[in-house]
């Protein structure tokens, strides 16, 4: 087949499409011609007339082809030069070249020589995905357009209403504001091409490909035309949480989105009459295309489990005061960095069901936690998650261990935020005098523990650092027990945290207690207790200068101090 024959067949196909569209409730051809003459591109012309779906797949339908068709069917389009066939480099005055993709990137105007515009944009997206080596199973296409696109489209609609509003065809549903938007039209053009190129389906929004179009000159002019009382600067509200990202593209997109949303709302509040007085009808022609930024973002993924903290010099989260690290390391860093590295994320956030002080160990079944990985390039397999756990658990420093590490759904985060119901502890305490059976009887009560609240006993051996260096070589054994069932206490915010916590009065429940005496010493005891979550255990022992009542010291009528503390169980049916 010769090039001439192929061209003729394409021309015949295009004209066949136009004939069908013209016969199917298409508006008068002189109105179509007028839209082209004021700088509206062919896709926007058909889109605004509600016929975009008929021609979206026809890449050969250009302004010259459409004008030729109009000349054959409309006398007003015949004779002399026509502004719709101007050879200047004007973009569409509505979509700014988005639907006939001409775009500006940091390296200049993108050239589409030898390749269709849609294929070129598809190729650019594919390169962005490949550059970061994202692992894909589905994607969702997000498109952000400058607010001036909506403003210019409204200006065109009002101009056409002004010019043709009295004609019968205009009064029908044709040229309705309910027709396909520029975003929807661009998505219709790009999605099939992207699905083929990326070899995955469009639909799931956990991985988003975002096309951000901006036009600084037109946007500045638009904002200057808005009424002064509406054109006010917006304050960017601070967001909770901190995280480390490789670049600021995500934040920049958020700011752009918020600004455009504000302008859209402002435009919606302006009545047509006021709009016509503020803006030029029809809008002036556009000679500079939009600037395009392509970005990819995966929604956070979550890896959860339970951690055990075996050191009394490791904080839960990174703790730095005046540029000085507190402790040797943190649970957050030890677990989080290994997870982030495997997932190749921009950063990560550590979430746990409660917390313990830096000098308190977390033993027993461990504390539930989640690592929220931001913009992960890779979703780890079950084997890779096991490798992360093995690496953490085989560390020479033995600060932290993890259990039941696995990839979990976002719903786990909501469940964990509800917090733990109760916790069990083991505390080494000292009293200023030896306790008698009468002393123990003072705080002993009914032992009516529910089956699910039986104490979790941790066996403390002779050589554990749990023991004070002043009493070496001592063994613990159960010499006397005391039980306390559902004792309510009142705790004011402890003095030690008053600088960072609100001064509140809190009521807490002590569910039960057991005590073991340290052999060879009359003043040292190992206290096991189960309490409501949020109980300050240290203050419950020594009383915090009367701010916790009752306390162990107050009940015994002597001084009581807590020397070391372990969490032995966190009661949550989560990540077991």
UniProtKB/TrEMBL annotation:
Residues 237-249 have a biased composition (Basic and acidic residues). It is an enzyme of class 5 (isomerase). Gene3D superfamilies: 3.30.70.2510, 3.30.70.3190. InterPro entries: PsdUridine_synth_cat_dom_sf, Pus10-like, Pus10-like_C, Pus10_N_euk. GO terms for molecular function: RNA binding; tRNA pseudouridine(55) synthase activity. It comes from the Eukaryota. GO terms for biological process: tRNA pseudouridine synthesis. Transmembrane segments: none annotated. Keywords: Isomerase, tRNA processing. Residues 226-251 are annotated as: Disordered. Pfam families: Pus10_C, Pus10_N_euk. Residues 92-291 form the Pus10 N-terminal eukaryotes domain. The keyword Isomerase applies. The keyword tRNA processing applies. Its EC number is 5.4.99.25. Residues 302-450, 487-570 form the Pus10-like C-terminal domain. PANTHER family: TRNA PSEUDOURIDINE SYNTHASE PUS10 (PTHR21568:SF0). Belongs to the pseudouridine synthase Pus10 family. This is tRNA pseudouridine(55) synthase. It comes from Brachypodium distachyon.
